[in-house]
Amino acid sequence: MKTLKTYIALAFVSLVVFNSCKKSDTPVTPPASQNPSISLVGGSGYASSDYTTSVGAPSVTVKAISLSNTTSNSNLVSVYSSVTSNNTIVYSNTATLPSGAKSHSDSVVVTTTAPGTSRVEFKVTDKAGMVATVAINITVVGPSPATMPIGSGAPIKLGGSADPNPSYMNLYTGATYSQAVAEANATNIDLVYNKTKVYSPSDALETDAIIKAAGVITRMDVYTAKAYSSITDADINAYNPSGSTNTTVASGTVVMFKTNSGKKGVFQVSSFNGSATSSSTDNISIVGKIQQ
């Protein structure tokens, strides 16, 4: 009797497993969407996806077309539009649609008077309470700060600790300082040169305790994307040094930098007599430009 019950139980389990497998193989058709639809208009004069422009460029128009659902045939009742900037809604409007509306178009104009990012959103609601939304970001970029030559624009010579040329300089003004006066000007120093290396006065390579304590932090990277003569103001504005406070240079080396005051710029080693071992001749000349 026990054996018979066991066979019956096993047969029942097999039937359940078989039926379960059979049911899982049956394709399930998802229910048709009951939501209305909304889409952005593309083409000349319109933005239909995330868009970047510049200050002073023509205003950007974002236009949305709303349609009732063809399955539910539920009429549209309203379309809400908004523009959000810096987490603050700066524009909003709700268009209440006439009875029986099946479609509607609405548009928002984003001005380019100031830099920043605006999020434009549209939401359509139908009579059944079903909704659909669409949104994009419009970014307005400010002009790149103009640059000026470092110093007079002529090459600036820097020497190592045993070289008679000054070792310290201010990248914004181009002023150079010898060891004798460097401590008194420590807060003005952006760059130090010694034995084939340029570095921030706050870097571990700086051995003068007074300069290191008062020195500013200058970030810099060797830049290989373009030749120095081809680097534009926009290139300088777009590039952020990765965080190095020292780098080794050679003849022709191009260095992008950012000073502690936030000024970004570039310089090139125009002549190189650097030496990691010489006790008398260890100097380089640089030419560069920095944001005004």
Task: Report on the architecture of this protein.
This protein is 13% helix and 39% strand. It is built from four helices and 19 strands. The chain has helices at residues 2-24, 179-182, 209-214, 233-238; strands spanning 37-40, 51-54, 60-67, 76-85, 88-96, 103-110, 116-126, 131-141, 147-149, 156-159, 168-169, 176-177, 191-194, 197-199, 219-222, 246-248, 254-258, 264-273, 283-291. The strands form four sheets. Strands 9, 10, 15, 17, 18 and 19 form a six-stranded antiparallel beta sheet that branches. It is elongated, with a radius of gyration of 34 Å.
List keywords for this structure.
mainly beta; 6-stranded antiparallel β-sheet; 4 helices
Order of helices and strands: HEEEEEEEEEEEEHEEHEHEEEE
Shape by Cα distribution: elongated
Number of helices: 4
Approximately how much beta-strand content do the residues carry?
35-45%
From the helix content, strand content and strand pairing, which structural class follows? mainly beta
Say how many strands there are.
19
From the N-terminal CA to the C-terminal CA, the straight-line distance is: 99 Å
Q: Biggest sheet, in brief?
A: 6 strands, antiparallel
Percentage of residues assigned to helices: 10-25%
C-alpha Rg (nearest Å): 34 Å
Question: Are there runs of 5+ residues with pLDDT below 50, and where?
Answer: 1-23
Mean pLDDT: 89
